[in-house]
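Morning F.,

Quick status update on the modeling queue. The single chain you submitted on Monday has been processed. Sequence for confirmation:
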Amino acid sequence: MVALIFVFLIVAASIAATETRTAPGTGRATAVLTTPRLCRAGAISVTNGPYVGGATQEEAHAITITNTSSHPCSLHGYVRIVAYDAHGVALPFRFAHHPTGGWPMATDVPPPFSIAPGASGYVFFAQIACYTGYSELSRRVAVTIPAARVSTPLILHTPLARCKGPSATVGNVIAMSPIEPTLAATGGRVP
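Structure tokens below.
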């Protein structure tokens, strides 16, 4: 009985992943594969990505989003990141969807892309160094992917610094790429 239900669910998922359209002028129906639904919090893991370096006077970070489910799902858009101080208070960083320093960064959001079970998508974000000191450091962040209602906690390898003084104007704005299918794509084009 369990096997029969499992087979039914697989067939239903296959049907849901395709839609039938009539080819113009032919009267014949053709199946068109659609993108799987967006990944949900329970179907992914969020981890520190590989070290990506950074431009001079810039701290750079990568996040890896891996499909841990047994079905494909899709990623699209920007993650939401909230940084916390040592006492669990959210720090008022502003995440911008454009480069803020010398490091090139993807700014065009790619169309939704499918990730197979075990495959990953990537996010890159970078902060300009605090030239005039900082008031707080944050290693703890919460990452929320689009379509997820639950944030995933993450401990960064290197902290974000809440800048003070004249460098706060640029240092507290953190540039962030959209979710990309490869780590290389998060860097955008080099001018």
